[in-house]
Specification:
Blueprint (H helix, E strand, L loop, with lengths): L8 H21 L4 H21 L4 H8 L9 H5 L4 H26 L2 H20 L16 H14 L3
Helix pairs in contact: 1-2, 1-5, 1-6, 1-7, 2-3, 2-6, 5-6, 5-7, 6-7
Length: 165
């Protein structure tokens, strides 16, 4: 079983930030305005909180939930890179998926199998919750789809990066 002491400071920060990056990635893949973005961010955060609660018996999740410090945020220009908006969004997507793979690998190496399974499930749940939080492509709440093709694609990529496919 893993505790905060099982990880280097940089690794611990990565474990804490990866769920938020997944949620932000889902918001970025299909931008729908400020209110939809807020709904997606809140849904992702709610997924993390519920995963912490549901897996509180696992040392890793208890330690993650107990850590109330503010982690250093990654440099946005490093994540986004240079280029057109489309290129920056692709860079962001690539970074999110790389962080998912890396964070899962850390938990697999240093945590228990139950912790690794729960962490993987949390990342996918965050992606699905964020995608389902707001309709995409509608006008004033009419029409549109609950989950766009771009969001569905990212969900599938998160599943694969987390080791589910």
């Amino acid at each position: 079983m893993a505790t905060q002491d099982s990880f280097l400071a940089q690794e611990w920060t990565q474990l804490r930030l990866t769920p938020s990056l997944v949620s932000a990635g889902m918001t970025a893949v299909e931008p729908s305005g400020i209110f939809a973005s807020i709904k997606e961010a809140v849904a992702g955060a709610r997924g993390v909180a519920e995963a912490f609660k549901a897996n509180g018996a696992l040392e890793l999740f208890a330690a993650l939930a107990a850590d109330k410090s503010f982690p250093a945020l990654p440099d946005l220009s490093t994540i986004m890179g240079k280029g057109s908006r489309e290129e920056q969004m692709e860079n962001f997507r690539t970074t999110v998926l790389a962080r998912v793979r890396s964070a899962v690998e850390l938990v697999v190496q240093k945590g228990s199998p139950a912790e690794a399974a729960a962490y993987r499930a949390m990342l996918v749940d965050v992606a699905e919750r964020a995608a389902n939080a707001a309709k995409e492509g509608g006008f004033l709440g009419f029409g549109g789809a609950r989950v766009s093709a771009s969001e569905e694609s990212l969900i599938n990529e998160v599943k694969k990066a987390a080791g589910f496919a």
